[in-house]
Design goal:
By secondary structure, the protein is of the alpha/beta class. The chain is built from 23 helices and 19 strands.
């Protein structure tokens, strides 16, 4: 009898562990597929699909479009796993298992669900199995949608599948374990991705062959961005910087459950970048000068246009005073700092008041103000004031380290703008460089400072930064669980290695990430070898053409050889890890770990050969050694092609950011050597004429 009691207790504990462990996501267990019953049915399990029959998904007409979209994704996910696609119905048929998506107050829910735990909560949700039914109940519509995305992952769908390429295990008979799961409100209220500096995806093309920097990003790519965010339980997106805006895009975001917002100089979502480029200034009667003192009404007309365009959407409005590009507003030269602060205050108060007047009664006005550059000092000095309902947003140094954070409680709520990607003096669009250790350390400071009302994460076009983006998304949902145990960063890397590459490969995969972050630990390490290659090639050209040149410093060669040895060791670890992976895992591991190392290692190998060529006794031997430098660079070209699988064809093409001579052009060393060799050392790689500053007016007539 005692043995039966013990077994019963263990079974009950296993159920509670399933629920609590999944809810907390403490990274001690596998998440994907963890609720799928892969053996004999147990009491309380629910059969969702069995061959060509199965459940239905019930979504009433009262539910928000975000819930309906989550149901569409859930139906597709069940089909990917089982081959059976459940119908989506507004009322239960009574003959099938029902997966019920219900927002609290919209319909009746089982009495086992404690409504008081959900009522007045932000995005909290409950997942409960009862006899012949699965209940996905949210405190608000986003909570309901997030319950559906949570269920999809626990059944076996990778929330990052659009980037990893992972397909779920096939289970014609799909069984959900008995489940009782509750997710409380998130740590960060508004949280989302900023798709900044879009340079690969816009279409059509400039005359240089680069994607048009003010072109249109195809809708399917925005949908991929939005789906990924939602599966990570994010609720906000800033989809644009320079790309042409289409209202359908921000409407899709809002309809799917994402607050539409934007960067710090896109005041009231008015798109100042388009004031001339897209003819918005003329259309909105904004006048001809961007001057608050002489053209107040014109500027207000322009900002009103942003509010009126988006007034029916769920949106978060940036406020402030900037130029029409990403630069400081130009005040009169003789104006005092005190008078400038008065103008800032007047402008922001006017923007807040104007927005409230223009929004429908059912739309809550939400505002944020970013303490970028000049404004951080003003805030710290207490020399400006903004309305209390404006969220104050603190920034990092564009390289994942916070410049400052609030030191005391004041009348405002606070948030953060954080960079995983960045185009500027620390450009890192090619591969990920912000380590999990940095993320964990900085976000511990952010949470401790209570800057948790808003979190905008610069991920550019997402692909390269998805691992760290997921880490931040998890912190934003449940920071105490993610951060408060020892060595949060390594726990995340270890979990990621198990979750994405399997338990057998995980130790070597985790070590590979450690090697990666040791070698690519700053933006300039991405092209350390390429820069040394370029320097050696310039010197070799002088030598071959009989011009004076300085030899490469010996310490440079020593650095290159040391890194070459480190890369060889790292590649051995990668090979051991890949030997224990399936084909999908190998491919993604190559894209996410190996390729980032190869982008620097191959030019490092080539640079060593060029330095040997510089030391050659004559031109013939120098040419022979420079020819040997071509081999690792040609190999890199093939390796890049391997990473350009669908839908990432030509992902590493040249763009206005990755121009021919720029370090972020991963083909630069290969192309430099090709030009050098074909011209016998008399020519250098150049950019197409006008590539840096093309005449874009010929394209603006398209809009």
């Amino acid at each position: 009898m005692k043995n039966w009691i013990l077994i019963a207790v263990v079974c009950l504990l296993s159920v509670s562990i399933l629920s609590a462990g999944a809810a907390a996501q403490d990274r001690s267990q596998t998440v994907r597929g963890s609720w799928m019953q892969d053996g004999a049915l147990r009491e309380g399990d629910i059969v969702l699909a069995d061959q060509n029959a199965g459940c239905e998904i019930v979504v009433s007409e009262k539910e928000h479009s975000a819930v309906r979209q989550a149901a569409i994704f859930l139906a597709g996910d069940i089909e990917k796993i089982s081959g059976y696609k459940p119908p989506i119905v507004s009322t239960p048929g009574g003959q099938r298992v029902g997966i019920h998506l219900i927002t609290l107050g919209n319909d009746e829910i089982p009495k086992q669900i404690a409504q008081d735990k959900l009522r007045n909560q932000w995005e909290a949700h409950k997942i409960l199995t009862t006899q012949n039914a699965v209940w996905l109940v949210g405190a608000n519509f986003r909570g309901t949608a997030f319950a559906a995305y949570t269920l999809s992952e626990r059944l076996g769908i990778d929330p990052l599948y659009l980037w990893t390429g992972y397909t779920p295990e096939k289970h014609p008979k799909l069984v959900l374990k008995k489940t009782d799961y509750f997710a409380n409100s998130p740590t960060v209220k508004y949280r989302g991705f900023f798709h900044d500096d879009e340079d690969i995806l816009p279409r059509p093309f400039e005359y240089s062959g680069y994607p048009l920097r003010i072109g249109d990003v195809p809708t399917e790519w925005y949908q991929r961005f939005f789906e990924t965010a939602l599966r990570l339980r994010l609720n906000m997106v800033a989809p644009y910087t320079r790309a042409h805006r289409r209202f359908e895009v921000q409407k899709i975001a809002s309809d799917w459950g994402l607050f539409y917002t934007s960067h710090h100089y896109d005041i009231l979502l008015s798109n100042p970048f388009g004031i001339e480029r897209f003819g918005l200034g003329k259309a909105r009667n904004a006048g001809t000068t961007w001057d608050w003192l002489t053209n107040r009404e014109g500027m207000l007309n322009y900002w009103r246009g942003g509010v009126l365009e988006n007034r029916e959407l769920d949106a978060i409005y940036p406020v402030g005073l900037r130029g029409t590009d990403d630069r400081s507003y130009t005040f009169p030269k003789d104006m005092s700092e005190a008078d400038k602060s008065k103008i800032f205050q007047d402008v922001i108060e006017t923007q807040v008041r104007t927005t409230k007047e223009l929004l429908p009664k059912d739309k809550q006005p939400i505002f944020h103000f970013t303490l970028y550059t000049e404004m951080l000092k003003k805030y710290q000095e207490g020399s400006f004031d903004v309305p209390a309902d404006v969220i104050i947003v603190w920034t990092d140094n564009n390289d994942g380290e916070m410049r400052a954070l609030p030191q005391k409680t004041d009348k405002w709520k606070h948030g953060v703008y954080y960079h995983l990607a960045y185009f500027g003096n620390t450009v890192k669009q090619v591969t990920h460089t912000i380590t999990p250790q940095r993320v964990a350390g900085e976000f511990k400071k952010i949470v401790d400072a209570k800057a948790t009302e808003y979190m905008l994460i610069n991920v550019s076009e997402v692909r390269e930064n998805i691992m760290e983006a997921r880490m931040i998304a998890d912190i934003c949902w449940n920071a105490p669980t993610a951060l408060n145990q020892p060595d949060a960063a390594q726990r995340y890397v270890d979990w990621w290695s198990r979750e994405y590459f399997g338990a057998n490969a995980a130790p070597d995969a985790a070590q590979s990430y450690s090697n990666y972050y040791g070698l690519i630990n700053a933006y300039d390490k991405i092209w350390f070898g390429a820069d040394k290659f370029q320097d050696a090639l310039e010197r070799l050209g002088k030598k071959i053409n009989g011009k004076p040149y300085e030899p490469v410093p010996r310490e440079t060669l020593a650095q290159l050889k040391a890194r070459d040895e480190q890369y060889r060791s790292a590649m051995n670890t990668i090979s051991r890890a890949q030997a224990r992976m399936n084909d999908e895992q190998k491919q993604y591991f190559f894209e996410h770990v190996e390729l980032g190392l190869l982008i620097d290692w191959r030019p490092t190998q080539a640079a060593i050969k060029l330095i040997e060529a510089l030391d050659a006794p004559d031109a013939a031997q120098a040419w022979k050694l420079s020819g040997q430098a071509r081999q690792p660079l040609e190999q890199l070209e093939l390796e890049i092609l391997r990473a350009e699988r669908p839908p990432f064809e030509n992902w590493y093409r040249k763009t206005w950011i990755r121009r021919e001579t720029k370090p972020s052009n991963v083909h630069r060393s290969y192309e430099q050597l090709r030009v050098f060799t074909s011209s016998r050392g008399t020519r250098a790689l150049t950019e197409p004429e006008g590539a840096a500053r093309p005449d874009l007016t010929r394209f603006t007539r398209m809009w």
